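Late entry, evening session. Most of the bench is empty. Finally got around to the prediction I had been postponing all week. Sequence below, unchanged from the version circulated by S.P.
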Amino acid sequence: MQSIPAKRLFLIDGFGALVSALFLGVVLVGLGDKIGMPKNVLHLLAILPIFFAIYSFSCYFFLKTDSRLFLKGIAALNLLYCCLTIGLLLLYDHKLTLLGWTYFVAELLVLAVLIFLEFKASSKNT
C-alpha cells in the first residue's frame, strides 16, 4: 500500500478536524438528548479539533523542511484525543444513545485510519 504524502495528510487532518469540530460543537449539541453526551463535554471535544486544525493547516502552508516530526506530533495528538473520547464514552455510557454511540465509534474508526497513515508516513526514510 502506497503511503499518502505528508503534506496531503496535514490537509486531510485539518479538514477532518474542522468537520469534527462542526459536528461536535453544533450538530450534536443541537441534537441534545438524541445523543446522550452532555453539552459541556461536546463543547470540550469540539474545541480540541479546532487547535488540531490550526496545527495541521499551519504545517500544510508553512512547513518547508522535513515534516516527519510534525506528522508524528499530530498523530500523537489524535491518538490522545481518541483516548480521551474513549474515556468519556466509558464515563457516560449509561447516558449515550445508539445514535451517540454510532457517531463516536465512526469518528474513532476514521481517526484510527488517519493515525495509522500519519505514523506510517512519518516513519518513511525520505
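Two things to note before I forget:
The chain has a mean pLDDT of 94.
The chain has four helices and no strands.
Will write this up properly tomorrow.
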